[in-house]
């Protein structure tokens, strides 16, 4: 399918290496964050979430870090695989009951 | 498969026309969200419905409207279409007001 985000920042990593994707969020009152993965031609898919009362959360091969002081969110992917190639979006929920605001996305390209 | 279905998958139409996009949420989900995604942009929130009622509005043009029916499926109506309306339109659903959103596969609209 046609790719989205033709002019997105791109991160290229070697297969097997760890990937770190960063996201700066805008609202210091945001209390819930989600990372989504979007493969070409598909809708975004939930990866992992974190609430503002946590600094770190781990999933399977993924870790999300939250630094509220500098309003920064990162997604770490361990042992990156070709299937990890996609666009990754962070989303913040500015206030309970309000809707998510999505970041512009980062394209992850896994090199063989 | 997220459990969210969208029809049609592709839609090609002319400027000035009107189209209707359809979304069926995951079984049991009360919230439906509509997003627009252009080639160079991330996900732009359009509108949210919760159990049949409009809950929140984002960057939705006056030419666009939506509704959620008693069976919880939703339709997004786009009228007086312009070339710039060409985009991917995603529907997402969630169980509550602020929960993980499950995205459908999207409808690709091309306005010629």
Chart the SSEs and their pairings:
The complex is a heterodimer of chains A (112) and B (112).
Chain A: E1 10-14, E2 19-24, E3 32-38, E4 45-51, E5 56-58, E6 62-67, E7 72-77, E8 86-93, E9 101-102, E10 106-111
Parallel strand pairs in A: 1-10
Antiparallel strand pairs in A: 2-7, 3-4, 3-8, 5-6, 6-7, 8-9, 8-10
Chain B: E1 5-7, E2 10-13, E3 19-24, E4 31-37, E5 43-50, E6 53-57, E7 64-68, E8 74-78, E9 87-94, E10 102-103, E11 107-111
Task: Provide a concise account of the structure shown.
Chain A is mainly beta and 112 residues long.
Describe what you observe in this structure.
The complex is a heterodimer of chains A (about 110) and B (about 110). Helices cover about 0% and strands about 50% of the residues of chain A. Chain A is built from no helices and ten strands. Chain A has strands at about 10-15, 20-25, 30-40, 45-50, 55-60, 60-65, 70-75, 85-95, 100, 105-110. Chain A is globular and about 40 Å long. Chain B is about 0% helix and about 50% strand. In chain B, strands 2, 4, 5, 6, 9, 10 and 11 form a seven-stranded mixed sheet that branches. Chain B has a four-stranded antiparallel sheet with strand order 1-3-8-7, with no helix packed on it.
Give the termini distance of chain A in whole angstroms: 22 Å
The overall pLDDT of chain A, averaged over residues, is: 88
Q: Give the % helix of chain A.
A: under 10%
- Overall SS class of chain A: mainly beta
What's the rounded overall pLDDT mean of chain B?
Answer: 92
Main sheet: strands, sense, barrel of chain B:
7 strands, mixed
Protein chain pair with the most extensive contact, residues per chain: A-B, 28 and 28 residues
Instruction: Profile the largest sheet of chain A.
Output: 6 strands, mixed
Structural class of chain B: mainly beta
